[in-house]
Amino acid sequence: MKFLSYVLIGLQVISCVDNKKITSEPEQAAIVESSVESKSNDDLIAELRSGIMVYNFEGLDRALLQKNNDTTYVVNFWATWCKPCVKEMPYFEKVGAEYAKDKVKVVFVSLDFPDRLEPLVVPFIEKNKIRSEVVLLDDADANSWIPKVSDEWQGAIPATLMFNNKKRAFFERSFTFEELEKEVQSIL
Fold this sequence. Notes:
7 helices, 19% strand, Glutaredoxin
C-alpha cells in the first residue's frame, strides 16, 4: 500500500513538471499560461498540440471570436469528414491571400474529435498546404456554445462567421469563391 502511494505521488509530481506551454502568439501565450492553472482537461482553455492551438469554447471565444480591432475575421467551422467543408477550403485560402492587404484573416476551426488531430487534421493541413490559421475546438457541449457563435446556427457545417469592429454576419452553408468574395466585400 505504501508503495502504491509513492507511485501516485511520483506520477503527480512528474505530471506537474512541464506546465509551461510555449507559443509564438503573445495573446495565445497568455491564454495558454492561464490554462496551466486548470485542474482538468474539462477546464483547459487552450493548449498547443502538434503545432495547432486546441481550445475549449471559452478559450476560442476569448482568443478569436471577441476580437475588436481593424481586422476582418472570416472564421470557418469545418471538419475533415465534411465533404462540402473540404471542397470550399481553397476558396477561403484564396480570399485570405487576395484580401490580406485589406486586413482580412481567415481562420479554420476544426470540429474534428481531439483524438483525430494528429492522425487526420495535421496531415490534412499539410497535404492541402493550408496557409491560414487552423485551430481545433475541443468542447463537447455544442448545445451550449453553438448559440453563442450565432443564434441562427442550427449546428450544421460548414458554417462561417465573418466579423470586424463594425459588422457581424453568419452563414450556415457552403460557398463558391464568388459568393464568398461577395460576402467578404460586403463586410469590409
